[in-house]
Amino acid sequence: MSDQAKILIAEDEPAQAEVLKYNLQAAGYDVSIAPDGAEALMRIEEDRPDLLVLDWMLPEVSGIEVCRRLRKSDDYRDLPIVMLTARGEEDDRIRGLDVGADDYMVKPYSPGELLARINAVLRRARPALTGETLEYDDLILNLAARKVSRAGQTLHLAPTEFRILQALMERPGRVLSRQQIIDLAWGPNVFIEDRTVDVHIKRLRSVLSKGDFTDPIRTVRGFGYSLDADPDA
Amino acid sequence: MSDQAKILIAEDEPAQAEVLKYNLQAAGYDVSIAPDGAEALMRIEEDRPDLLVLDWMLPEVSGIEVCRRLRKSDDYRDLPIVMLTARGEEDDRIRGLDVGADDYMVKPYSPGELLARINAVLRRARPALTGETLEYDDLILNLAARKVSRAGQTLHLAPTEFRILQALMERPGRVLSRQQIIDLAWGPNVFIEDRTVDVHIKRLRSVLSKGDFTDPIRTVRGFGYSLDADPDA
DNA sequence: TTCCTTCGTCACATAACCGTAACGCCACTG
DNA sequence: CAGTGGCGTTACGGTTATGTGACGAAGGAA
Global pTM? Predict the structure, then answer.
């Protein structure tokens, strides 16, 4: 996982929850705890965790009910869930997998194994979060995947357009001259007409503004171009 | 291990064994039957099942003895075992878990529930049994068995295609250049034309997309290829 | 041996992309 | 308000990257 993934632990036994939190934090996760099912549902709305560790026996709203509700909701259908069951609750375990948990652990579990499962589930569930990304306004440029999206929608950029946008996003707000853009996007010692940049900027704009998006590129007359989401500021 | 997992039923009551066999076959498993403990041990050697459904009361060699022996052997230490006990044999049940059964069912059981447990045990046990598994979308690549399946269906990949897919699946979503693919799939210091990668990608695609599957490989013009199940996301 | 699979490469077709020229509008200057 | 340089936009020819079918070589299995 590239950054710090958020994990919510829904567990009513404070001691267990704390141990788990400690272990997961040590592994680099951002951890919070909900002591019952109702609170878990609340915190899911609030914190938007990337993964839920869900104890099966919870006060207020049972784990299985939490799971069922999440799977029915539009927003959290895909929230990865690792459930915890005590030995002897085999029936619930089976129901849990049926209800849509991604994995389960039987208590008592080894912290290492639980961590491994969490990592595996996260990896499986969030392939998009791999690699370095540049962000500007609602634009996201993923270097590793070589993908650009705006407001969640993937855009198709030609290679040159991609490199120009990358150059601009690496220097947000700064005005780049045409020659600078050529150096950054084509490489130094490449002879390209300045006006060619204009054409690519135009193409880039038309892709970025497809739909009813506003044009994030500002023309600075006599100098060049810059990224500027809010020209009035 | 193919996607058609082999299950051995060790059960001395023919009627029960047959019913069970019928149900498991309907669920897509490859099923065989052993009427007593001695035969069970023999068939395990012979058939190499992926999971054992083990009745506790068996002629010749008792279920508990079978279990104990398997757990002591080097080859079958991790063979998943689901044991069947008659009601009232609580002591044996507990001994069974101690001896190393992975799960148990009390007779009479519902076929659906047993199936659910078998599925769960297999899913949990397989990674340990078969080595690491890579998953992406509905693709599963089993390193140890060198097998690939899509949506449950086994695919036949040539060795080079397998290694390329492995390289891609180890870095899901990330774009790999042709040279990187060569290094990863052929090894460093191997001279291969870049275009050769294209041809293998084409062959890989045609296998992965057989039927009406969508092509999971994205071409990134000017750079290389990446795994991308959902280009619009 | 012969048959079959896999491999690397090539050759050709196609589609995507690129750079440039040309035209006309617009913003600024005076 | 006229003039001018800068810029947006379109069109187009050429180039390059990729898809695809074919082929011969190598190796293994029967």
Answer: 0.56
